[in-house]
Design brief:
This protein has 275 residues and is an all-alpha fold. The chain is 60% helix and 0% strand. Helix 1 crosses helix 4 and helix 8 packs across helix 9. It is globular, with a radius of gyration of 20 Å.
């Protein structure tokens, strides 16, 4: 194995450090409380990734198709960076973890390291559910223009890397819906079996919805964005209430996209659960 490949694998391992920190699959017993703890920690990763992305303006040049000027590649610069990064991380074994879902799963290379043996908590039919196309579309088309100011500072590679951090954090959080659905099904299989067999999506959605919990999550994420993104001064005051990102935007992110897509993952998983 060449020195370059080893170096890239080290970088990939470092980039994946937050993935291996207290993952859902680390527990011997899958519980709803354990999943909730993981989801709360993931809120931190999401908020911090948004704050990091907000350092840069939109830099719309990196999203234009056929504008990367890379021989043999016809997509956007951000797509190129995501594809190449996922390929490196795949070699380091990132996507052997059932909690991780690539944005471009086609033709990913095999791991070059011995993969960790993750618990097989998920039903095989539902484990492969991938909502990343919808995540990609809402992030770039709807959310990102709300998060950052229009403009161009030329920091294209760093901007794309920040986008990838946001995408991966959001993907990890949304696809945790598979684990939520699995635990809820195990806790009350008879309650779910009838709507699953009759493909009653609305009934399943109602069974999975707890409005009070969702409101609590949105308030907590907004408060985290307020605390994590405040401008800190030596006199311990936040002058003028300035924040790196608008705290209400974090709540809106969860309200309009994260929670609905997580629930969609849960429903899709349950519909496969009896196969």
């Amino acid at each position: 194995m060449s020195f370059l490949i080893l170096f890239l694998l080290v970088l990939a391992r470092e980039a994946m450090a937050d993935v291996s920190s207290n993952p859902i699959s680390a527990s011997d017993t899958l519980t709803l409380d354990g999943i909730r703890d993981s989801l709360i920690r993931q809120e931190n990763s999401i908020v911090y990734s948004l704050i990091e992305r907000a350092r840069f303006p939109l830099n719309r040049q990196i999203y234009l198709q056929n504008n990367a000027s890379i021989p043999g590649f016809s997509g956007s610069l951000v797509e190129f960076i995501v594809r190449e990064t996922e390929a490196i991380q795949a070699k380091a074994g990132r996507y052997e973890n059932p909690e991780e879902n690539p944005f471009f799963p086609e033709s990913l290379p095999r791991p070059l390291v011995n993969p960790h043996k993750y618990p097989k908590d998920l039903h095989p039919s539902g484990a492969s559910i991938n909502m990343n196309k919808a995540i990609w579309e809402f992030y770039f088309d709807k959310f990102l223009p709300l998060l950052v100011a229009d403009g161009d500072d030329g920091n294209y590679a760093a901007t794309a890397a920040s986008d990838l951090a946001c995408l991966q954090a959001l993907s990890r959080r949304i696809h945790c819906g598979k684990y939520v659905a699995e635990v809820k099904f195990r806790d009350a299989p008879k309650e779910y079996e009838t709507p699953i067999r009759s493909k009653e999506r609305d009934t399943l959605t109602k069974l999975l919805t707890f409005v009070a919990v969702e409101e609590m999550v949105k308030k907590r994420v907004e408060k985290k964005a307020m605390v994590f993104g405040q401008e800190v001064t030596l006199n311990n005051t936040n002058e003028g209430g300035k924040h790196t990102i608008d705290p209400s935007l974090a709540s809106r992110l969860y309200s309009e996209w994260v929670i609905p897509l997580t629930k969609e993952v849960e429903v899709e998983y349950l519909l496969c659960r009896l196969e």
